[in-house]
Amino acid sequence: MIRSRGRTCRIRRRKLVGRSVACGVNQSHEPEYIQLRKWLKQRGFEDTNLQTAFFPGTGRGLMTTKSLQAGEPIIALPERCLLTTGVVLESYLGDYIRKCKPPISPLLALCTFLMVERYTGEESQWKPYLDVLPKSYTCPVFWEDCTMSLLPEPLREKAQEQITSLQELYSSAASFFSSLQSLFQENVENILTYEALRWAWCTVNTRTVYMKHPQRHCFSRELDAYALAPFLDLLNHSTKVQVEAAFNPESKCYEIRTRSSHRRYEQVFICYGPHDNQRLLLEYGFVAGQNPHCTVCIPTDILLQHVPNTDKQKNKKLSLLKENGFLYNLTFGLDGPSWKFLVALRLLCLGAEEFTCWKKVLIGESVSNKNEKKTLEVATKICIQLIEETCTAIEKISHWKSDKLGLEDQLAMVESLRLEDLSILQSSRDILESLKDATD
Ligand SMILES: C[S@@+](CC[C@H](N)C(=O)[O-])C[C@H]1O[C@@H](n2cnc3c(N)ncnc32)[C@H](O)[C@@H]1O
After folding, report:
1. Which residue's CA is minimally distant from atom 13 of ligand 1?
2. Is residue 17 scored above 80 in pLDDT?
3. 59 touches ligand 1 (CB under 6 Å)
4. Which of 142, 169, 209, 300 is most buried (most C-beta within 10 Å)?
């Protein structure tokens, strides 16, 4: 017999159905996570409230088995669990690092330790941690050239710069790597390869927490603020939460406290910083939906295409913008064109007879209705040009999705980024249209 379930039951069911979207599949019983917990326990970390789980949308993360209130600690990881340059210096690598001239960077020291320990395999003291690290990363340094070509220009340039600096790090490490030959039976060149460094570099870049260490003479002068934090580094990012995170010198633990509340069995998030999607993609290899920090950058060459060569003051205007920092970081946002972009355009749109007013323009004043109209017209043209470019890229992505096997994840990520850009640009275009109507 089917019994009517009653109102309370229906409400409870509705709540559960709603929540199941956010709920993850518990993975804590899998051997590698059991080993990790055992290893952490030996190093003084015991926690029963967080469990490894797989969540739709964000992938692997941590779920809480009790509700968390704002202000409560999420996790406190003892110093003995952290992998820092201090640990590296105390290891078998310490003497090699101290002897190296010129000194290597703290980043290279940490990367080398990860590469060697990964190669060591079964014998590594860090094996339980290494076993749960991703085998590969989704950051652009791992991308194929064809996917890279679909990124918006300013991001493509930054991704290219990142690849170049990683290649330079690899070349500059050559003599340090060969000094380590005595640690291995196999040729060191086959162990400490570019691919191994790329993996280690992404591990450090996507997973370390900020923990400033004193400057050490055996390292070059780059900032040393890295700590790899096993288990804690399974926490995913959300723009919607706020946390306090720092190493507590009294408890000797790296502690994270939430300023948001989490329900039981929900994923616990932290915030990696107020990053836009371009930064998230570049540094962490993912894109966050509905990211309030997102803007679309306007490449300088697109801006310049809209300044006529017949404008006799063109060069003077450009050098004024450059000197005053108005030529870069110009953006469209969900709330319209940025103030900086409008100032730059107002100056570029000044007629010859108005040019003496340039100082007023640079402090954000509007000088005439004519100038205002022209500014909004050019801003709309640039916005439409970027909308068209974005739509062309989205179309290309949808063709490639069926053609280019193996690139689905990379293409899906560029697609999310481009779709987010499109909605920002469309919103900016609508705002510009209403501003234009208001000046008529
Ligand atoms: C510190 S780790 C977090 C744990 C990670 N998900 C894992 O399985 O090891 C950072 C990485 O997690 C992923 N990530 C973090 N937050 C995410 C989110 N909101 N959506 C999708 N991926 C996310 C990205 O790949 C990022 O580089």
Report:
1. 236
2. no
3. yes
4. 209
d(CA 297, CA 332): 7
CA angle 82, 85, 87 (to 5 degrees): 55
Pocket test for ligand 1, best of 268, 286, 413, 416 (most atoms within 8 A of CB): 286
| Positions of E strands within 9-111 | 25-26, 50-55, 59-64, 73-78
Question: Strand 236-237 and strand 267-270: pairing?
Answer: parallel
Q: Which of 159, 192, 422, 363 is nearest to 279 (CA)?
A: 159
Nearest CA to ligand 1 atom 20: 58
pLDDT tens profile 187-238: 999 999 999 999 999 999 999 999 999 999 999 999 999 999 999 999 999 9
pTM of the complete model: 0.88
Please list, in sequence order, all residues whose beta carbon lies within 8 angstroms of the beta carbon of residue 259, skipping any fewer than 6 positions away: 70, 71, 241, 242, 243, 244
User: Which pLDDT band, with edges at 50, 70 and 90, does 117 fall under?
Assistant: very high
Query: Of 65, 62, 46, whose CA–CA distance to 54 is shortest?
Result: 62
